[in-house]
């Protein structure tokens, strides 16, 4: 049975699933067009009042230091730029999949944003992987946790408590309480949403990526980027209650990428300020 056929049983057993991020998907499609017009993009953004409102707030934030207020979507797009718009839509689609947004969800959201930011930086400096693909994979690779929290928040809180008290590894505890680990659930959801196969597979294998080194070298490389990006987040406490003392140059991801330790150190110095900047933009 193929991986994608197995996803069907996962979907059936996970209850009601989040709706596909329609506007984000539409924006991604438009942003790939070489002859894209701002008005066309503005029309797509305007389909979602929440994204429109946040885009305007972002354009009028102190970050851009404008004298005149921005009051149209197309002008706001020109101010913030297409990359920020794309990231805003993707971030919103991630947060909107959560039915509640308490402390646990906030930490998960920050970790996803942090992984996305680090993945983009790492892919750009260390690989030939499209940095936008890396960003999106970093953003969504833990989406399975969101599905689990939506299904039974208290049960997933028990998962976190068991892991934090040393009763087991995360994926083992998830399987014990939910039948599946979060990477399987996440990959099934992204496949259900018709995400690119590369992102679906990277989500599925982001923990055990060594096993696909030979069979799927590009997925292996993307998974290594995600793994190192996650260690960046652990190192700086992004999405976690405290920082962890990690030698990033010896991370499984760094070793898999054969990354130059000096480049890893340079990226690590730039990561946290970049994360804070993007997080604050999303919260503006």
UniProtKB/TrEMBL annotation:
Residues 17-209 form the HDOD domain. InterPro entries: HDOD (IPR013976), RNase_Y/CdgJ (IPR052340). It comes from the Bacteria. It holds the Pfam family HDOD. PANTHER family: PTHR33525, RIBONUCLEASE Y (PTHR33525:SF3). This is HD-like signal output (HDOD) domain, no enzymatic activity. It comes from Desulfuromusa kysingii.
């Amino acid at each position: 049975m193929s991986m994608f056929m197995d996803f069907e049983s996962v979907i059936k057993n996970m209850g009601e699933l989040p709706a596909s991020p329609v506007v984000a998907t539409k924006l991604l499609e438009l942003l790939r067009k070489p002859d894209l017009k701002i008005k066309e993009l503005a029309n797509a953004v305007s389909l979602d009042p929440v994204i429109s409102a946040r885009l305007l707030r972002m354009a009028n934030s102190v970050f851009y230091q404008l004298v005149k207020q921005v009051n149209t979507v197309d002008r706001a797009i020109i101010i913030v730029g297409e990359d920020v718009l794309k990231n805003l839509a993707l971030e919103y689609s991630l947060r909107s999949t959560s039915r509640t947004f308490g402390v646990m969800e906030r930490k998960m959201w920050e970790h996803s944003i942090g992984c996305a930011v680090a993945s983009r930086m790492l892919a750009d400096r260390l690989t030939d992987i499209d940095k936008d693909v890396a960003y999106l994979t970093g953003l969504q690779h833990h989406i399975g946790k969101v599905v689990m929290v939506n299904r039974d928040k208290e049960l997933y809180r028990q998962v976190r408590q068991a892991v934090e008290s040393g009763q087991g590894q995360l994926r083992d505890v998830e399987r014990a309480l939910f039948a599946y680990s979060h990477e399987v659930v996440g990959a099934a959801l992204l496949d259900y949403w018709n995400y690119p196969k590369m992102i679906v597979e990277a989500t599925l294998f982001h923990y055990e990526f060594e096993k696909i080194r030979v069979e799927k070298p590009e997925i292996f490389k993307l998974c290594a980027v995600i793994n190192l990006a996650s260690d960046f987040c652990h190192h700086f406490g992004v999405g976690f209650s405290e920082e962890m003392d990690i030698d990033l140059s010896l991370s499984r991801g760094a070793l898999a990428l054969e990354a130059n330790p000096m480049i890893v150190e340079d990226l690590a110095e730039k990561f946290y300020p970049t994360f804070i900047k993007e997080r604050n933009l999303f919260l503006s």
